[in-house]
Amino acid sequence: MRRILGIVLAVLLIGGVVAVILAGGGPQDPEHTATKTVHGVIGSEKSEFFADPDVVKALSAKGYTVKTETSGSWAMDQLPLNSYDFAFPGSSEPAKEVKAKAGVQSSQVVPFFSPLVVVTRTGTAQVLAENGLVRMTGKNTGTLAMGAFVKAAGEDRTWQQLKGSEAHPELLGKVLIRSTDPSSSNSGALYLAALSNVANGHTVVSDAKGIEATAPLLNKVTAPQGQQPPSTDAPFREFVSGAGQPLVLVYESQVAALLLRNQPAGDMVVLYPDTTVNSDHTFVPLNDKAKELGELLSTDPRLRELAVRHGFRPQNGVQEFTKATAPHTAYLNQNLAGINQVGTPTVKILQTLAERAKG
Questions:
Q1: Do 335 and 322 contact (CB within 8 A), yes or no?
Q2: 6: buried, middle or exposed (CB in 10 Å: 19+, 13-18, 0-12)?
Q3: pLDDT, tens only, 39-59
């Protein structure tokens, strides 16, 4: 009888385990185990997004494990793209080059974007406003007058020549914006695109004549910086820590993410260039394995919510961004009022401009 009872209990136990697995509660439950691993190359400004445990969880719930490595957006087409399932540069122009190099015809998607901004401090912003280079729209936000800035840069204007600068002994040397390496970094390249547009009569540089007309100005704002960082991460961290340069080019997403984490911004002032090129983060699937991932990043409510938490503006997501950042309007231009969005030169022309700018 004991032997018979033991066999019956064993059968019941095995049946119970099988029932649990069939019911979806076992270790192979797709809610707990991603079914597809994809490997992509991304711009460094999206590293924290993909590393966020909540993003990892949300992607896993949709059946994805996403592994990434970083590269300068404008250098991605030089990588062995057959090693990746997707590329995710920070602009549409390098995305076109990636598609051409990889020989893919799949549709690209822009899940979210971020404007470029210049961060500074209250005293510096007041000096710039007094000299017509900035229009303050609040205590901690304003608009950088790109025409006036280009003129000042072309004249090699120094801080000491600006009215009111004598009260700020830390302001020394030429009036420059610290920017990233335009030959590889997305923000640095877009900065040159905006500057060249203004210097070229508010027209996208598209030929040799435009290059010759704008290259001297670009050299004046780039070469004196010396070695430029490969991404905005380090310059922004330095600025937040109280060090760094008086004017630093970063992404709005970095500022918004800082504010949404309720970290102190102190006397930071966020300046939006009145002529700019938005960073359109463009997802390029390089094979069928990653084809649906770009759509998920664009349309999934949870992933859009998390993109906003990292400071990005979802495409067609004005209300989402506005609602999330409502407590921080002292720093952020939510509807981008007064900002003129312009196009970018081709990758080939922009690379030439970058070479000329660096001297």
A1: yes
A2: exposed
A3: 999 999 999 999 999 999 999
